[in-house]
Structures are given as C-alpha cells and as structure tokens.
Amino acid sequence: MSHHSSQVSADLIWEIARHQNSYLVKRASSGGVRFSRDPLNLTNVHSRKYAGFVNDKAVGVAPAEGDKGGVTLITKKTKHPQRPGSSINKVTFGGNKTTRKTYKGIVSSTAKSGYRSDLRAEAVSRASAIRLSQTPKKDAPEKKLRGAKAKKAAAEKD
C-alpha cells in the first residue's frame, strides 16, 4: 500500500484505500469501530491523520528486538516514495537508557526537527506503554494479619 508515486496526492490515496486496505480491522460487535494494524500508526485508530501508508511523513514506535527491552522509532524517508523497501529509517533506544532519555530522543527526532510535531504526544505515550510492558512485575506482598483474633486463628492453624 505504501508504494505510490509522488505525482499522486496522499489525499487521493486515502480516498481510494480508506474503505478497503490490508491494515483495516472492522469490528461490528463494538459499534462498528475501525482499527488499523499499520506499523506506522501510533494510535491504531483508522483515520487519515495516523495512516502511515498514506502520509509521506509517518512515525511508528515498536518494541526493540531482543530480550533486553527498549523501543524502536520508525520514520519514513520522504525523498523516494517509489522505493518502499528502503524508505524506512529505524532508530533503537535500548532498554539500558532511562525513559526520559528515550522520550527526549523521540521528541527531538519527531517534533523538534520539524518532522511530524502533531504526533509527538502519541509517540511518547506509545513508547511509555511499551517500556511499562517491558518492566518485570513485582510479586504481591504477603497480607499482614490485623487484630488479635486473626493472629490467634493463624497460630492455631499452624
């Protein structure tokens, strides 16, 4: 889908492909909501603003490959849209970096460089959700007995 000539506008591509494309997920059971599986779609909502295959400039955030964690920032190169194989730029922020440095790197490469400043908050929130899912979960603490009767009942069981 991302293979198009620069002579065709992104609006025309969206009008043609918005009702049927390989990334579209339709759910009739949830009130007809439509989602997107596009890797360059930050919110997974099927809309023109977030559609990565349509826009010349698109941003995606994915988990980094490997077991160390981290996130990968995916951007589209605007120079040659007719070369989809080499039109993606990936930058990986490792799991050993602090989350603030990761967010700052995402913001500087999207908003501060003038690439897609409207997607700054969505990119940071996607990276935050990925980093949160990569942190190991702590075990629930053991419940403490409260009151003399509870302590006495536990002592009788042992």
Please estimate the helix content.
25-40%
Gross geometry: elongated
Number of strands: 5
Supply the helix-strand structural class. Answer: alpha+beta
Strand residues, percent: 15-25%
Individual helix count: 4
Radius of gyration: 23 Å
The termini sit apart by 67 Å
Main beta sheet strand tally, sense and closure: 3 strands, antiparallel
Tell me the series of helices and strands, N- to C-terminal.
HEEEEEHHH
Enumerate the spans where pLDDT stays under 50 for 5 or more consecutive residues: none
With strands numbered from the N-terminus, the spatial order across the biggest sheet is 3-4-5
Average pLDDT: 90
Write a short abstract of this structure.
The chain has 158 residues and is an alpha+beta fold. The protein has helices spanning 10-17, 99-112, 120-134, 148-157; strands at residues 24-27, 33-36, 59-63, 70-76, 88-94. α2 (99-112) packs antiparallel against α3.
Describe this structure in words.
- By secondary structure, the chain is an alpha+beta fold.
- Helix content is 30%, strand content 17%.
- The protein is built from 4 helices and 5 strands; from the N terminus they run αβββββααα.
- The strands form 2 sheets. It has a 3-stranded antiparallel beta sheet with strand order 3-4-5. Strands 1-2 form a two-stranded antiparallel sheet.
- Strand 1 and strand 2 (33-36) form a beta hairpin.
- Helix 2 runs antiparallel to helix 3.
- The longest helix is centred in the last third of the chain and has 15 residues, at 120-134.
- The termini are far apart.
- The mean pLDDT is 90.
